[in-house]
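Schema walkthrough. Field components (list of strings):
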Amino acid sequence: MGQTIAEKIFAAHLRDEPFPGAKVLSLDRVLCHEITTPVAIADLEARGKDRVFDKTKIKAVIDHVTPAKDSKTALQAKMLRDWARRHDIQDFFDVGRNGVCHALFPEKGYIRPGFTVIMGDSHTCTHGAFGAFAAGVGTTDLEVGILKGVCAFREPATIRVDLVGKLSPGVYSKDVILHVIGQLGVNGATDRVLEFRGPVVDAMTMDARMTLCNMAIEAGGTCGICLPDMVTVDYLWPFIEGDYADKAAALESFRYWHSDADARYEKTLSFDVSALNPQVTFGFKPDQVKPVSELAGTRVDQIYIGTCTNGRIEDLRQAAAVLKGRKIADSVRGIVSPATPKIFSEALAEGLIQIFMDSGFCVTNPTCGACLGMSNGVLAEGEVCASTSNRNFNGRMGKGGMVHLMSPSTAAATAIAGVITDARQLV
Amino acid sequence: MKKQFGGPALLLNRSDINTDEIIPAKYLTEVTKEALKPFCLEDLKLEGFDPAGPRLKAARVVISRENFGCGSSREHAPWVFEVNDIHTIIAQSYARIFRQNMFNGGMLAIELPKVDIDRLFALEAAGEMLIAVDLEQLRIVATAGSQSENFSFDISGFDKALVAAGGWVEFADSRY
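Field assembly_structure (string):
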């Protein structure tokens, strides 16, 4: 019997099975941010176990509220900073060098095919785009990860998601994943891995694949995962060129992780995306999804472009292409947060930042901020935000506020019109 | 530390109750569990439920429906229950991370089939509900007014070991 990529990664990392079905895996990466890590640090200190299992496998960033907005967030940042220094964690990213974790860590080359990755953040599933098993966990799992380098999972079954056909111009990976979640439901992949396959995935860049895997958790999925290919090799090449004779050799090595032809899936779903139109959410759950045309004309107050879902350079290019030479509506405010300093620099060099500013957008530093209603664009009661983020829960971006999830292109068109708009309809 | 299970129940009759409803993100700036205490279920809008009311204050058990605790990985969601002395959740199903976080903290996230969850919600009509949990026999007795109903449940050997150890840190520290 063949194995899926997730089963291969589990087999290669199995450290213990204390009870049937409870698999304790060794970890290649334990990623930390300032919201969920400080309580783990404090607990380790209280237990007299303030140690780390391997300082080179732990990476840390201040990203959720940065620069600190008040004394409490300053304390969280300080706790993470002091801890990173005390344990000589070299890969710690403080103000000025920091960015949204799920954009920054891949960009630094930390995520490789076949890795096991945990973080105290539900969107850790993003890193599956590299062919890694990457799962969001709570603070206790994070704490044990930091101390022992292990984490326990029930081995998840895999749902294979074949994406076939060809995306139309103006339709992006965000539209695909919103559509898939709409079909699966918010509970449709609970305790499952979503393995994204097919020609549509093959044609996607790493940025687009990360958008796809980022939202696996919104269907309840433990991890979204893509099979590593030459696109993966090209992205990682600056970090791995010393390890392989050439790119072909790297690809051959990565192929080890590919699901076998006779691997067993719980089920296989197939979506032909050729006729797919831009998608948008309409309620307070991410599976409440409709084509943009059905919500066209819905008034919004704010547009937010950024986050671990859609704050990468390609996303900014898509939005800027729509905004170029245009002004956003007087009735709205637009906020863009490039997800990392590197992305910010690239956007500057390409003239994208000027386009955002000329159109009337506020450009903020890289941070999670407004996505979860913590800073830099929190909504007032009754306000509506068109957002490129991943979660539209009631009050997510501010108590009493509402969020419509959409692609950067749709968000930009919505900014110009002041109402939800299909970018392809802009005159 | 070993937890107490069972007690007066608060019934939340909706699926997909998410972590933002259980504890809004704006409170994630706290660095102690205790500081979360006043904000339990603050953003949950559900007919008949008042986050400031006496029912929540008295509750030691929460009963709900499908996909409880979906959304964020924040362990602040189980913690806000923990510091309010709610150490038992009974639901039809859970989001993976929330469920794991409950057992990792030595608390109980009990799954019952839909037919049993429906029985619990029906029983609520008889009055305020008291839940007794027998972890040895894996049985629940729900009492409301003069009526009482019995349920059996199952948890995995691993989950049972986590509860017995007091949580995943204790379990892992003694073993790895």
